[in-house]
Write a structure and sequence with these properties.
By secondary structure, this protein is α+β, with helices and mostly antiparallel strands. Helix content is 60%, strand content 16%. The chain folds into two domains: 3-147, no CATH class; 150-220, Alpha-Beta Plaits (2-Layer Sandwich), CATH 3.30.70.
Length: 227
């Protein structure tokens, strides 16, 4: 028997064995799918809790749960039969995804959901739990560091050099950088990039209260967002 005949016989035996689902496979698949649902919901909760972008997408968050469950089901199907696995490879090779991911951190959550789906389908539940713990800790650390120094763009319209000096003095010890300073017949438009926390924005009211200030605009800036 040559290699070609052996491969044909293996495919035929695998196809024949898939006609009848065993009770053990159904039980293991049910447990894996339940674990995928629970862990997918935990990924969803983590994404919702630590989201740090500009516009939160609830549909993307729900997609993480579905991605975990579907990846688990797909892996179970592929691992159970070689004929199905070959068909899946052919079917998935023609799929094209057109949705653009605006925040690179969203890709991390997508791969997280896919990885958990594969691990649960393989039945390696300790590794799935360990992966969840490590990723949750990383999400918390990254979120804490991101919140410690949020970038803002401050735009101030004022009159007088003394007012400009007073505005810079009110920044205190905060890190800031003057991005532009435009003069229009006595009126000045000052654009400043600065890092600050949500609970440390009292200086904005003080700047607005200055006599020479006409208006103040404070915008949270995320350099990773394009849209």
């Amino acid at each position: 028997m040559n290699a070609r005949d052996y491969f044909k016989n293996s495919v035929l035996e695998s196809f024949a064995s898939s006609k009848a689902l065993t009770l053990d496979f159904l039980i293991s698949a049910l447990i894996a799918m339940a674990a995928a649902v629970v862990l997918g919901l935990l990924i969803y909760a983590t994404y919702r809790r630590y989201y740090g972008g500009v516009v939160y997408s609830s549909s993307f968050a729900m997609t993480l749960v579905g991605m975990t469950v579907l990846t688990c089901a797909l892996t179970l199907a592929i691992s159970s039969n070689i004929v199905i696995s070959l068909g899946m490879v052919g079917a998935l090779s023609i799929v094209r995804y057109r949705t653009a991911v605006k925040d690179p951190i969203d890709l991390l959550y997508l791969f997280w959901a896919i990885s958990i789906g594969i691990i649960t389908a393989a039945g390696i539940y300790p590794l799935a739990i360990l992966t969840m713990l490590v990723m949750a800790i990383l999400a918390h650390v990254f979120f804490a560091r991101r919140q410690a120094g949020i970038i803002y763009i401050l735009v101030v319209h004022y009159e007088g050099e003394e007012t400009g000096a007073e505005i810079l003095r009110l920044f205190g010890r905060q890190r800031y950088q003057i991005r532009s300073k435009t003069l229009r017949k006595g009126q000045v438009e000052l654009t400043v990039e600065l890092a600050s926390r949500h609970d440390n924005l009292a200086f904005v009211e003080k700047i607005d209260a200055l006599a020479g200030v006409q208006n103040v605009n404070l915008i949270q800036y995320n350099g990773e967002y394009n849209g």
